[in-house]
Design goal:
By secondary structure, the protein is an alpha/beta fold. The protein has 26 helices and five strands. The structure holds flavin-adenine dinucleotide (FAD). The site of flavin-adenine dinucleotide has 27 residues, from helix 11, helix 13, helix 17 and helix 19.
Length: 492
């Protein structure tokens, strides 16, 4: 009997899973496979919180599989030796998986797998992920292709005749049972069941006030969909979310909230398509001339930013909240990057890796293009040089979020939670709080750094050599989805 190996990557679900459907439709025995790969676990963008989410997702799949007499084989090892061991034990097979828009490390691994498959005459059938188009020929055709993909019917796995192979000897050869990724109690839990619950609660109720709360660090935690880790690790497909959105809405206000949400779903693929088209987004600044804005590396400044000790309360609250919970809304992510890039004028790459490890929803396809956009290294976006004090006035006016995540400021009245450096000596005695001792002095003066960065970045963007690359970039990358500009305004 032939064998079908379904290799799960960032598609940790059993529903709407085209590779699984294709494998089940074949007359072959089945091996459902997840592999923790040591060469990827040591990459600087990988963290325990990602692995814990993966483990929870697999556990959830195992529960469902158990009810139909199947199970997932979870191994620890490199893909090529594992595929080779499968080949030796079971003979020729077909490998099924989704395409992955990943980092250089996953591209390299995929190339090694492709070479091995070719050498052994093993067929590797890859299926598109959401609306991302591999080897896109015409960037103007992308938006239509994406929509067509998302309108296809959901894949329904025909489980009835599924028959698993015995994988026990592989489990002995490549054991993954001693993996321990620690406890992360304040983070969202992985798995299709959890994903469906977050989706249902958002569509039933939480979406009310979506647009109003989008930029608010606390409000977005409740009124944002919070689907990002489930989409990033594939507990949900985009198609499933679009289909769930077909439900009629009750009020005009609600439908505007959901329209705004819907356009963000399109952004998901828009950004992934950028990395799919240009792997350089991960490796280097796409418009290298913009790098002249960065200062020589300052480890102390970077560390203060990375640990939430810059002396700017909203920056520090956001970073500490992210460290504890793995989530931050879009505006606050953009503000953290802007602080690192424009106010500290530090290169974006170490910041990208730090945030990648902290974001539970880390998805290279969104992350790297967003990092470069917010760090000002594309050369063609508006430079959003956020002032964190102004952002706090707008989006955390009572400084409740700041008080929650920077406890050393919690006992101060809101005005001083926002600007503790403005306390008079008398007030310092009254509140028993000494700026510089109980909370850091600001590490830079943002009025000054903001103004300098604004002048510098615009001057760089107008240099002929930068403009020439901007033109080339705009000719290469896919067009923004419809409504993109309007929605950017929602998020001001
Ligand atoms: C520097 C930076 C890095 C980022 N890195 C990631 C990342 O690694 N993974 C990730 O999923 N998102 C990333 N984002 C985008 C965005 O911040 C998150 O998707 C969003 O905050 C998730 O919250 P939500 O699920 O409640 O989103 P909602 O507002 O409810 O949106 C629904 C879904 O649409 C997609 N989406 C929303 N906003 C964006 C956006 N701006 N760009 C692309 N897709 C979007 C997400 O999949 C999201 O789950 C990044 C943003 C910035 C500024």
């Amino acid at each position: 009997m032939s064998l079908a190996v379904v290799w799960f990557k960032r598609d940790l679900r059993l529903n709407d899973h085209a590779p699984l459907q294709a494998a089940l439709a074949s007359p072959s025995n089945l091996l459902l496979l997840y592999v923790f790969e040591p060469s990827l676990l040591v990459q600087p963008d990988c963290s325990d919180r990602h692995c814990q989410f993966i483990t929870q997702s697999i556990r959830d799949m195992q529960q469902t599989l158990h009810t139909i007499g199947l199970s997932m084989t979870v191994l620890m090892g490199e893909m090529v030796p594992i595929l080779h061991a499968i080949y030796q034990q079971h003979g020729p097979f077909t490998l099924y998986s989704h395409e992955e828009t990943g980092t250089d490390a996953t591209w390299l691994r995929d190339r090694q797998v492709a070479d091995w498959c070719q050498g052994q005459q093993v067929t590797w059938q890859e299926f598109p992920t959401n609306g991302v188009v591999r080897k896109l020929k015409s960037k103007s055709a992308w938006a239509n292709l994406q929509r067509q993909r998302l309108q296809l019917p959901e894949a329904q796995p025909p489980w009835a005749h599924a028959k698993a192979v015995d994988a026990s000897s592989l489990e002995i050869q490549f054991p993954a049972d001693s993996l321990d990724f620690g406890e992360h109690p304040l983070m969202q839990i992985g798995g299709e069941r959890e994903a469906r619950q977050w989706l249902a609660s958002f569509l039933e109720d939480r979406h009310r006030g979506y647009r109003f709360n989008l930029s608010k660090p606390e409000g977005a935690r409740h009124h944002g969909s919070r689907l990002s880790p489930y989409l990033a690790w594939g507990n949900l497909s985009l198609r499933q979310v679009f289909n769930a959105l077909q439900q009629p809405t009750t009020s005009r206000r609600t439908s505007r909230d959901l329209a705004s949400f819907r356009s963000r779903l399109y952004w998901h693929d828009h950004f992934c398509q950028k990395l799919e088209t240009m792997q350089q987004y991960e490796r280097a600044s796409v418009n290298p001339g913009m790098e002249a804005g960065f200062l020589p590396w300052n480890q102390a400044h970077h560390d203060a930013w990375a640990t939430g000790k810059t002396g700017y309360p909203l920056i520090d609250a956001c970073m500490r909240c992210l460290i504890e919970t793995g989530f931050l809304n879009f505006r606050m992510r953009a503000m953290l990057v802007a602080f690192h890039s424009y106010h500290l004028r530090l290169h974006w790459q170490p910041a990208a890796l730090h945030l990648a490890r902290l974001f539970l929803d880390y998805d290279p396809g969104i992350h790297y293009p967003q990092m470069q956009m917010q760090a000002g290294t594309c050369g063609y976006h508006t430079f959003r040089i956020y002032n964190p004090t102004l952002q706090a006035r707008l989006h955390d006016p009572q400084c409740a979020f700041i008080g929650q995540w920077v406890p050393e400021l919690a006992a101060l009245p809101p005005a001083y939670r926002l600007e503790p450096w403005k306390m008079t000596p008398l007030e310092q005695v009254m509140y028993q709080f000494i700026p510089g001792r109980d909370y850091p002095h600001p590490i830079v003066e943002i009025e000054k750094t903001g103004q300098e960065a604004r002048q510098l970045w615009w001057a760089l963007a107008n240099k002929p050599e930068v403009k020439a690359i901007t033109k080339q970039l705009l000719a290469r990358i896919n067009r923004p989805p419809r409504g993109f500009d309007q929605d950017e305004k929602d998020d001001q």
